[in-house]
Amino acid sequence: MLPNLLKNPKRIVPGRVAFRLYDTYGFPIELTQELAAEHEMSVDVEGFHEAFKKHQELSKSGAEKAFKGGLADHSDRTRLMHQALRQVLGDHVQQKGSNITAERLRFDFSHPEPMTDEQLRKVEEIVNQQIKRDLPVHFETLTLEEAQKRGAIALFGERYEEKVKVYFVGDFSMEVCGGPHVEHSGELGSFRILKEQSSSAGVRRIRAVVD
C-alpha cells in the first residue's frame, strides 16, 4: 500500500485503511503507527476507531438477523466453547468477537500464544461432552452486580443495563447474554475445531464447524 499512500502530500494513513489492515491482516493499530512513522507518516486513529465502531454495529446487526433467521442455537456453541477455553487455558480468556452462520463459527478470544494440539482437542472434547450431557438451558434476570458475584461471564465491550439476563447451561456455563437459546444443550449436535490462528496482538481465533 505504501506507494499509493506516499502519493498523498498529507502523508497520512486513512482510518479505513488502518482498519482494513487490522480486520483483514491482523495488524494492530500500534503496529500500523510504527510502520507509518518509519516513513514519516501518521495514522488517522480517530478514523480507525470510527471504522471499528461501524464494523461492530454491522456485526451486531448481522447477529440479530441470524437469530431471527433461526440460527440462535449456534450462539450457545460459542458459550460452551468460551467456558471450555477458560477451563483449559485460564480465566484470562475473554471473548473478543464472533461470527456465526448455520455451517460454521469464528470465535476470537484473548490469549497470548498459540494453542497446542492437545489443548485444542481438550476444548473440542469438553464442548462435545456438555452437548452429550443434554444440559438444560435457562435464564435468570439479575442485577449486573449479582451476576458478577455469582461468577457469570460478561462479554467484552458490552454496555449492560442495570438488570441483565444470565443464561445457565446446566452446571457448566453461566454468562450474561441475550437470547434466544435452545432449551437443552443436546439440541446442538457435534462440534469440531478446524483451525486456531492469530487474529491480532494478544488475540487468537478459532474456526469451527457444527455437524
Explain this structure:
This protein folds into 2 domains: 2-65; 71-210, Threonyl-tRNA Synthetase, Chain A, domain 2. It has helices at residues 2-5, 15-25, 29-38, 45-68, 73-89, 117-132, 144-149, and strands spanning 12-13, 42-43, 95-100, 104-110, 137-143, 163-169, 173-176, 191-200, 203-210. Helix 5 (73-89) packs across helix 6 (117-132). Strands 3-4-9-8 form a 4-stranded antiparallel β-sheet, sandwiched between helices. The protein starts with a helix and ends with a strand. The longest helix has 24 residues, at 45-68. It is of the alpha+beta class. The relative contact order is 0.15. It has 7 helices and 9 strands. Strand 3 and strand 4 (104-110) form a beta hairpin.
